[in-house]
Amino acid sequence: MPHGPLMIIGGAEDKLRKRTILKEFVAAAGGPQSRIAVVPTASSLGPEVSGVYDALFRREGATEVVAVRPESREEAHDPERVAQIEAATGVFMTGGNQLKLSSIVCGTPVGDAIVAAHERGAVVGGTSAGASIQSSHMLAFGGPGSTPKQRMTQMAAGLGLVDAAVIDQHFDQRNRYGRLLMIVAQSPQLLGIGVDEDTAAIVERDDEGHQVLRVIGRGAVTVLDPARITTNAFEAKRSAPILASGVVLHMLPEGSCFDLTTRTLVPPEAQVSEEDAAELSEAGRDLRAMARDIAAADASPGALRRRLARRIRSRGDDPAPTPDDDPAGTAPEQEGPTR
Amino acid sequence: MPHGPLMIIGGAEDKLRKRTILKEFVAAAGGPQSRIAVVPTASSLGPEVSGVYDALFRREGATEVVAVRPESREEAHDPERVAQIEAATGVFMTGGNQLKLSSIVCGTPVGDAIVAAHERGAVVGGTSAGASIQSSHMLAFGGPGSTPKQRMTQMAAGLGLVDAAVIDQHFDQRNRYGRLLMIVAQSPQLLGIGVDEDTAAIVERDDEGHQVLRVIGRGAVTVLDPARITTNAFEAKRSAPILASGVVLHMLPEGSCFDLTTRTLVPPEAQVSEEDAAELSEAGRDLRAMARDIAAADASPGALRRRLARRIRSRGDDPAPTPDDDPAGTAPEQEGPTR
């Protein structure tokens, strides 16, 4: 059975207007056939939060939504809660305190059932705290700022659905570059993944078993690859800024794909509009005609004159494109900056 | 004549306590021999600002401080103002609006005199706006946020003291990752340099003519190298987040050096304490003794027994270091995180 997709949402996903991310989650869970388990353990609110997602998911067409809310490790051993996860086609973890979520759920039957759900093909998603917990290593808490400083943040263990990675959320909005850089400087085998609000990193396996991340939503996903870092993170003192040189940065807006296994951007497929394609095909014809004209001129000037006269009689148009044309259709027509 | 040092200060340099950066500026200008020209054109205040720096530089030992304040391009042609720059051993540009500073000064005799001062060996420094103007390309203004978005910022031309670069300031404090990334994504031949508050990038030429950046102060200097970027900056629409994949990031705290010409970290020199050095030298002796012991054992077990017996008689101590020792003194003694 193939692994299900993961949806790592940076918090504050749009719930009122376009609802791109919530729609995508319900669709991945099976649309009208979906049975969604909402895990609101990270939140201090509980019923209110699961009530909101219940309504949201039903509006997008889910037929069954159930709240699975262990509030202690003991409750996370409850067979009924485990069965609810086992029956789900999608598991959604809400925002809140990721350390509360991980310390109640990780390493319990409910936690294991979430991992098993992913492995049997269900979609597992989460927003904010529910995003953080999906990686092997979890950013537990920490301060804002773009300069990484020793001790500015704390790491704990996550569910491990994304291996060899650490996930951060509200990334742009809460200025969390520094803390993610600090973590990867101290653990350079990890990939740092920062997800903006109303943005999701969807992680799926491709045919070769690679985990490939695709971005949807309003913001971007930032990937920090410290494989070749030079750092003093092992000796920087107290709260001093730390050296982190040679980290490779990937800033990925909607539509980008990134191979987490090879740590490289998946080249975007060239998108050619129908209009461009028609123009390109016509240009191809013109170029072939021009090539024949040139060959004729090489044979003799008289042969070219006869060719051109024949063509003008039969088509009634210019024999060849002028230099000011754009025969290959390469000049993109788009709205760009005017500066 | 060798070029003088540049001091690129990220704003809000400490003026009351340690005053590391201001001290360094006066020292570079010649200490008691220094004649400093303060250019407060960026500021809307003027006399108040130059008065503050007058007092600060005199406190650090400068004997002559003069304000050079053109308020129009015409005033920036004034021969007296030019002469004041020409007589200076240090030129300091204050904070304010870098676009005001550059539009009044760049390409005028006063601007040319600042460039000439650098070329004849004077120190040229500036804070905030006075930092931004030093690069060939100047970040004129723009919004905060760590995700780069199309049209979030605007570029203008600077003095060009640092070539092929764009400088940003208040970098950590005002969350300016996004705008610097946007600029380098659109102009990947430039190096992006972000300087935190109370932090300075000191740029000097080494023996090979490379511009080498050294960091002092409380924060860090962030360098973004987009040489191998993949980006959609040429076609991203309106204010959409832009793709910027493969940017190499260098986060440089105090004491780090970075070669701007080769775009690589200058490896820090190993710092070995006297105590460590003594231990290392003794360990060397022990290791040589051990090597001879092993050679003796290879010859015959009896030869080794005789060697060891001789040594114990003569030194009265253990014949060789035990495995729990740290003979090479490689375990650093420092204060590190306790987690």
From TrEMBL, chains A, B:
**Region named Disordered:** 308-339
Name the reaction it catalyses: [L-4-(L-arginin-2-N-yl)aspartate](n) + H2O = [L-4-(L-arginin-2-N-yl)aspartate](n-1) + L-4-(L-arginin-2-N-yl)aspartate
Q: What is its EC number?
A: 3.4.15.6
Supply the CDD domains for this chain.
GAT1_cyanophycinase
Pfam name, any one: Peptidase_S51
Keyword annotations: Hydrolase, Protease, Serine protease
NCBIfam families, per the entry = cyanophycinase
Q: What does this protein do?
A: Exopeptidase that catalyzes the hydrolytic cleavage of multi-L-arginyl-poly-L-aspartic acid (cyanophycin; a water-insoluble reserve polymer) into aspartate-arginine dipeptides.
The family line of this record is: Belongs to the peptidase S51 family.
Q: What is this protein called?
A: Cyanophycinase
